[in-house]
UniProtKB/TrEMBL annotation:
Presence of keyword Membrane: yes
GN (gene name): LOC111310168
Source superkingdom: Eukaryota
UniProtKB keywords: Membrane, Repeat, Transmembrane, Transport
Gene3D superfamilies named among the record's database cross-references: Mitochondrial carrier domain
Protein's recorded name: Mitochondrial substrate carrier family protein B-like isoform X3
Solcar repeats mapped onto the chain: 45-136, 152-238
Biological process, per Gene Ontology: transmembrane transport
Protein's cellular compartments: Membrane
InterPro entries in the cross-refs: MCP, MCP_dom_sf, MCP_transmembrane
Annotated Pfam families: Mito_carr (PF00153)
Species this protein is from: Durio zibethinus
Main location: membrane
Membrane topology: Multi-pass membrane protein
Keyword S-adenosyl-L-methionine: no
Amino acid sequence: MQTEARVGVVNPGHGGGGGNSGVETTSLKFKQQQQELLQAQKTQIGTVSQLLAGGVAGALSKTCTAPLARLTILFQVQGMHSDAATLRKASIWREASRIVGEEGFRAFWKGNLVTIAHRLPYSSLNFYAYEQYKKLLYMLPVVESRDENISADLCIHFVGGGLAGITAASATYPLDLVRTRLAAQTNVTYYRGIWHALQTIFKEEGVLGLYKGLGATLLGVGPSIAISFSVYEGLRSFWQSQRPHDSTVLVSLSCGSLSGIASSTGN
């Protein structure tokens, strides 16, 4: 009896190709996972950068304008502590001279520490919340259906800015209240510092005492920040479309200044 032996020959084009395809698929998945991880890390770094940039910028700007802010607060509460004759003679120069003579030059920055303590989280939350609200608003079906619509972009910047301002102001309002009360002190010292002011208000007025005036503040902050972000984004887009080679710093400073003036005037 003759036995026929058959030897199976592997065709590289079929059996071997399947193995190579599996390796390529695994390699592709690994590369995709690496790209997703890098993208997530970049997003986290971008978020931290936004928070830090917003906080530092807010704290620096408030420190530079602290003397004017102190004078503003003193003029606002002057009627509570002065007689009619003093009020008639009130002026910026007279009040500034009084501060230097009675309290010293450093008194212009009275309450500035709590201003920075308030401004760092406020500005950080403001910028971060604005970016998040903007992303959410762009995901709305009504907005997604409109490509490159200027009015839709303007509306998103306005609504996102308003919501961001309300969110940041609500979260940091107790520090804003303490800042105002510390800055309003003149010769009589009732609050010895940030922590003492928070404790005193909490004991004497309760938790709600830390949020006195929040409603009125939100009515001003919401529209103000909404106008600020809308004007800033609109001006920056227009400027960069007309003069794309101008310095980014120059564009940001100019648009930021004009948006601040617009928000203050509109508010």
